[in-house]
Amino acid sequence: MKKGAFCFGSKGNDGFFLLMLTACSHTASDKDEWIANDITEKELSELQSQYEAGHRAGLNDPVQVSREFIDSLKGIKVDESGESSIEERTDHTQLAVYPLTNGQSIEMELVHPGDGEEGILYVKRYRFITK
C-alpha cells in the first residue's frame, strides 16, 4: 500500500481512492459487519497538515469524503434516484447513508482524527446493509 493512504478494512484487493486514498474492496457476504479503517495517526496527521496548508479542502466535507470513498469501491455505485443522508451525532461523529444500485445501502461513520471535533474527516468504519 502507498504511504499516506487510507485503508478501509483488510479484505479483498486494494482499490484506488480519488484523493490518493487507498481503499480495500468488500464483498456482499460480509453485509451488516462494520469494517474498520486501519489508518495510522501519522497518516492522518500528514493529511491534516496538507488540509491546513490549503490543499485538499474537501477533506472536511462529509459529502465529498463519503462520495469519494464509495467511488473507490469496485463494483459499488450510488443509486442517484434514492435518498441519501448524513446525520450529525452528539459524539461529533457523522453517519452517512447512501443507497446503492445493488439494492443495499452503505453506512459510513465519519470522524475527525483522534475522534475530535475539528479538522479533516475520514471514514472510520463502514458496512453494507439490506433494507
List low-confidence stretches.
Answer: 1-29
Taken as a percent bin, the fraction of beta residues is: 15-25%
Distance between the termini: 34 Å
The total domain count is 1
**Shape label:** globular
* Rg, Å, rounded: 14 Å
Backbone structural class = alpha+beta
Helix proportion range:
10-25%
- The side-by-side strand order for the widest beta sheet comes to 1-5-4-3-2
Q: Roughly what is the average pLDDT, rounded to an integer?
A: 79
User: Number of helical segments?
Assistant: 2
Largest beta-sheet details:
5 strands, antiparallel
- In total, how many beta strands? 5
Can you describe what's shown?
The chain has about 130 residues and is of the alpha+beta class. It has one domain. The longest helix is centred in the middle third of the chain and has 12 residues. It has two helices and five strands. The N terminus is likely disordered. A five-stranded antiparallel β-sheet has the order 1-5-4-3-2. Helices cover about 20% and strands about 20% of the residues. It starts with about 35 loop residues before the first strand and ends with a strand.
List keywords for this structure.
single chain; 131 residues; alpha+beta; 5-stranded antiparallel sheet; 5 strands; 18% helix; 22% strand; globular; disordered N terminus
